[in-house]
Each structure stands twice: as C-alpha cells, then as structure tokens.
C-alpha cells in the first residue's frame, strides 16, 4: 500500500526528491510546497504531486502524509523540520542539516521527542565510487591511509545565478559539508585539528557576500591528514558545473576518484592497478543514480523501519566541524575541532 510523502522546497535539489517520489512504486506523492507559488505548481505538475501549497502547515495537518523532504535554503531548515517532527512526520533534510549548532540541536531534539526518523541527505554516501573507496579502505587494500586530497568546487554561476541565498552560505557550507562528511565516512575516522585559509573579492564584486574559496588542512584521530579545497569561482566556460576529485594515499596503495567526468574509482596496490576502461555518459536529460538513490534509501527506511543513511547526530557533528573551520579561517590559526 502506498504511503504519503511531501516536498518542502522546490528548488534544484528539491526537484530531485520530487523525481524520486514520482518514480517510487510505494510512494503517494501528496504535496509540493514552495514560497514561490508558480514554482510549487510547476514542480507538482511535472512530477505528479496531488497538490501544491505555499504553506507547509497544510502538509503538517494532513494525516495521510507520513514523511517529508525539506530542501529549503541551507539556513532555513529548522522551522519546517521542527514542525514536521511535531506533526509526527519522518524527515529527510538536505545537507548541511543546519548552518548553526543551535538550529541543528533544535531539530534533533524535536525529532527525538516525537520518535520520528531524521535523515540528513549526505548523498555521497550512496555515490558508487565513494562506496567502493570505503570498502577498499575497510579491506585494507591501501594499508593505513596517510593522506587524503579532495576538491569539490562549482562554477561561479552557482553562487551568482543559481542560489539566490548564496550570501547566507559559502562554498565550505554548500560543498565542504559533503566532503567533510564523506571523507570521515570513508576513513571511519574523526577530524581533530585544522588550519584553514579563505580569500574573497571576486564574488563580492558580483554582489555575492561570500568567500571565493576555502582551503583546509585537517588532521584526523588516526594521524591521517586531509586537504580540502572548495571554490565558488570556476569560470562559466568550465566543462562541468562541479569539479570533484578525491585521492587517498596509504601505506600499501592509493585510490583516485574522478567525480566530475567519468565518475569512476581507480585503485592501485603494490600488486596491481585496477581502473575502468569505459566511460559511461549520462543517459537522457534527467539526473539519475546516487542522488535519487539516497532519497529512495529514506523512503525504504521509513516504510520498512531501516536505519537511515546519515543521522541527525551525524549532521550535527558536520555542522560543528564546518562552523569550526569557518572560525579557523577567521582567526588565521589552527583550531581544535569539536569531538
């Protein structure tokens, strides 16, 4: 029997949630909610939702809605998440969970008090090369990880044109939250200390009050060192909207991930190198794969009472770390990271 799901926030990633709900055979897609009524109507019609609204309280009052996705702008998750929890709805919220520790803690408290599931959409945990890297590290294929390099950046069109709220965020929040989460998940390790540098000027010249980039050096409990680069100023002529690279070096081998173009993982050990010999382009105009898979994971966690992909507590830890990295950049000196 189908169960009711609803979407709050019908922007770019909200539409990916809508796409997953439309396709899932056990989902009755009830509502799309957005402050922009025309967009709410358009997304509801495109993805087959039964109704649209500009007031999420209409969704909360409907007993047929079992769960909601919250894909509002990053700083604006709290109101919808807390309302959903109080209404007894399970919640999938886009990453980062919050841009303040206070908001994150309030959302977790509301979900715990109501006894509902709260999943943070760290969808790179469902990204096949990231999963393969985690498995390889767990098997000991590369020995003890010693160094991780990761880069996730966007073209300048993202903060300038796509995100109307980019001045309330940064590349570190929007992109770095992904990579801090997935690297810790791959390593099964916790960051303890960081030094961060940020610069601004280019975006401010375009009317966006956000740093151009952050570069962070992060030490982990195990002694592994990671470097994280996140920029919002790649030129518009770049051949993809995002640039994603990950490299892990260990005592016995290395892993390289290209998440921008061929979306593959290469594994090199002392015995052999394994790498893909075929590039697979996307098929058709719609985004498919792991982004939708993460939403499907939430649906099945709700319907079959399974664990979620990333918990609210993991989202809180991520918010604390990103907040500390931003403070480190402001101070211009190393900081201890919250445990």
UniProtKB/TrEMBL annotation:
Superkingdom per UniProt: Bacteria
Family matches, as Gene3D superfamilies: Dihydrodipicolinate Reductase, domain 2, NAD(P)-binding Rossmann-like Domain
GO molecular function, one term: nucleotide binding
Short name of any one Pfam family annotated for the protein: GFO_IDH_MocA
Domain Gfo/Idh/MocA-like oxidoreductase N-terminal: 5-122
InterPro entries in alphabetical order: Gfo/Idh/MocA-like_OxRdtase_C (IPR004104), Gfo/Idh/MocA-like_OxRdtase_N (IPR000683), Gfo/Idh/MocA_Oxidoreductases (IPR051450), NAD(P)-bd_dom_sf (IPR036291)
UniProt domain Gfo/Idh/MocA-like oxidoreductase C-terminal: residue ranges: 134-337
Name under which the protein is recorded: Gfo/Idh/MocA family oxidoreductase
Species per Swiss-Prot/TrEMBL record: Devosia ginsengisoli
């Amino acid at each position: 029997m189908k169960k009711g799901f609803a979407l709050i926030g019908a922007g770019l990633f909200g539409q990916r949630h809508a796409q997953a709900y439309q396709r899932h055979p056990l989902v009755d897609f009830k509502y799309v909610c957005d402050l922009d009524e025309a967009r709410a109507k358009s997304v509801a019609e495109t993805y087959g939702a039964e109704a649209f609204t500009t007031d999420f309280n209409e969704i909360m009052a409907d007993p047929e809605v079992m769960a909601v996705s919250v894909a509002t702008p990053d700083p604006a998750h709290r109101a919808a998440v807390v309302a959903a929890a109080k209404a007894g709805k399970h919640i999938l919220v886009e990453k980062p969970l919050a841009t303040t520790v206070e908001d994150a803690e309030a959302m977790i408290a509301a979900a715990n008090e109501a006894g509902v599931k709260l999943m943070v959409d760290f969808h790179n945990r469902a990204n096949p090369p990231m999963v393969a890297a985690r498995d390889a590290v767990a098997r000991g294929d590369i020995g003890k990880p010693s160094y991780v390099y990761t880069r996730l950046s966007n073209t300048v069109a993202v903060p300038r044109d796509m995100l109307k709220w980019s001045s309330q965020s940064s590349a570190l929040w929007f992109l770095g939250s992904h990579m801090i989460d997935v690297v810790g998940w791959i390593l099964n390790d916790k960051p303890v200390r960081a030094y961060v540098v940020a610069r601004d000027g280019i975006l401010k010249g375009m009317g966006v009050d956000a740093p151009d980039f952050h570069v962070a050096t992060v030490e982990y409990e195990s002694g592994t060192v990671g470097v994280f680069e996140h920029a919002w100023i790649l030129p518009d002529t770049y051949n993809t909207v995002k640039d994603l690279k990950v490299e892990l070096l260990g005592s016995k081998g290395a892993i390289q991930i290209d998440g921008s173009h061929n979306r593959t993982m290469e594994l090199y050990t002392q015995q052999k190198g394994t790498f893909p010999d075929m590039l697979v382009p996307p098929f058709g105009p719609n985004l498919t794969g792991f982004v939708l898979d993460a939403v499907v994971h939430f649906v099945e966690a709700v319907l079959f009472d399974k664990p979620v992909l990333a918990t609210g507590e993991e989202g809180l830890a991520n918010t604390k770390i990103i907040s500390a990295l931003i403070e480190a950049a402001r101070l211009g000196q190393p900081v201890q990271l919250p445990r």
